[in-house]
Specification:
CATH class of the largest domain: Mainly Alpha
Organism: Oceanobacillus locisalsi
Protein name: TetR/AcrR family transcriptional regulator
Radius of gyration: 19 Å
CATH architecture of the largest domain: Orthogonal Bundle
Structural class: mainly alpha
Low-confidence stretches: 132-136
Number of strands: 0
Number of domains: 2
InterPro entries: Homeodomain-like_sf (IPR009057), HTH-type_Tx_Regulator (IPR050624), HTH_TetR (IPR001647)
Number of helices: 13
Distance between the termini: 54 Å
Order of helices and strands: HHHHHHHHHHHHH
Shape: elongated
Pfam families: TetR_N (PF00440)
Keywords: DNA-binding, Repressor
């Protein structure tokens, strides 16, 4: 890595770390370019040399909060005996954490980031190598490094297809409906449309997801 690349990476981290501090101190809704610049000790114009818009900084800062989910996930999935069990357990863990911090997960998975959000995620893990967790199974690594919710949990479903538990079409339907249910619940929680705490939202979401999976099992 050249000196210029090292300097760019260092500056990039300054601004992301400043954004993280603002989220912790004032909440994600109060993150602005001016606040980030002040916290990092630079002017606002400098930030645009490294980031296209504030949503990208919020996205990068929010990714740090996924560590709680990442830490729990391997042990959580070990409770499952089959790939389909592991699929359900991964979603249960994901729901629990996302409904506890809906603004964070909205910033990562639902907010408008413009073009190529996958490239943003790739860049994040290039800078924060320690957050990739080298000692994880392939299915968990896919969950951690795939921005698209429609593909991040397909590994377990694909294994279920190979085992004859699901057909290709059924796996696709389960995946699509699961994502849509989670998205709907997260938006409901964010907009205070129903008075549900994180535990109640998780239980309600997983009730629907379990019903969907059980409806499509070929082997009961």
């Amino acid at each position: 890595m050249s000196n210029k690349e090292i300097q760019m990476q260092r500056m990039w981290q300054y601004f992301v770390d400043a954004t993280t501090e603002i989220i912790e101190q004032k909440g994600i809704d109060n993150v602005t370019i001016r606040e980030i610049a002040t916290k990092a000790g630079y002017n606002s114009a400098t930030i645009y040399n490294y980031f296209q818009e504030v949503s990208h900084l919020i996205f990068f800062a929010a990714l740090k909060y996924l560590n709680k989910f990442i830490d729990e996930l391997p042990e959580y999935m070990e409770k499952g005996d089959t790939p389909l069990d592991k699929y359900l357990l991964s979603w249960e863990s994901f729901c629990k954490h996302s409904f506890e911090e809906p603004e964070i997960y909205n910033a990562i998975f639902l907010a408008d980031l413009g073009e190529n959000p996958e490239e943003l995620l790739k860049h994040y893990y290039n800078v924060y190598q320690s957050d990739l967790y080298g000692e994880v199974t392939e299915d968990i690594k896919t969950i951690l490094t795939d921005y698209n919710l429609s593909t991040r949990s397909r590994n377990a479903l694909d294994q279920s297809v190979q085992e004859g538990v699901l057909s290709e079409e059924e796996a696709a339907v389960i995946n699509e409906r699961t994502v849509l249910i989670w998205q709907g619940m997260l938006i409901t929680v964010l907009n205070n449309r129903r008075h549900l705490n994180a535990n109640a939202a998780t239980n309600k979401t997983m009730q629907h997801i379990n019903e969907i999976v059980n409806d499509y099992r070929l082997v009961k």
